Amino acid sequence: MPTGPMRKDNEALSYCAREVRDHDHDRYLTALFAPSDRREAVFALYAFNAEVARTREAVSEPILGQIRLQWWREALEGIYQGTVREHPVVEGLSDAVRRYTLERAHFETLLDARADDLDDSPPSDLAALEAYANATSGTLSVLAMAVLGFADGAPSRAAQLVGTAWALIGLMRAVAFHAQAQRLYLPDDLLQGHSVDRRALFELKPSPALNHVVRDVTHRATGMLAEARGLKGEIPRAARCGLLLAPLADRYLRDIARAGHDPFALPAAAPAQPLRLTVHSLLGRY
Q1: Can you give the pLDDT at residue 8?
Q2: For tag attachment on the chain, is the N or C end more exposed, with fewer CB atoms within 10 Å?
Q3: Closest by alpha carbon to 167, among 207, 94, 116, 99?
Q4: Looking at the structure, do residues 100 and 127 belong to the same domain, yes or no?
Q5: What is the mean pLDDT of residues 268-274?
């Protein structure tokens, strides 16, 4: 039984754990169910992701974002060359890479995808949006599963599916946030196919057409979660703690559906329930 969720509030957390708790709380809760000897490596992965994921929001101009991402590219190069920069996330990531032989290509894929955040153009179609979601959250989940000791096969595939679905759902939940900044992560072909008025969207005005786009994307995410669960028989129980984003994704999908797929009518996100995750973990479900 995982002991992470039962930690006392005053127990000291590492820098990486605090970063994940503060910037990616859902993943923080799921990481608590990783084996204690591997948990810090998972936190390091998630802290790295939190750093690069907020690049677009942290800079005022795309060139500054490129500079920020280049710093991380050079830090990553140093990790694999044995010259680790003095930064708590870099140091934690270096330890995870060394202990679990994590592939550099996965980190490069994630960084390349985050560079795309600096371009405000929407993805051309649903396949392009899915590729972005896979390169970011899907790749991150694959790395976390590798830390758990399952770098390939059904556990890795299920992690990729759950991670990609998680990103698709998150992007739909963030439509209003992105629209305020005149940004779109909605597929261009769906926007055109449903005749979405982009000017109205950027003015934060709801419309049935926009709801249809959100419905189409979340439908794809639902299918990916179902596909991941279809692999359950091939996934060792020890790997299933790496898939606990799935029940949290279900909750967000229900919220979106109850709002009629209107991204401007979504309820404020309620805190994830550790007890729910504990039950799933004890029963070997995801």
Answers
A1: 39
A2: N
A3: 116
A4: no
A5: 77
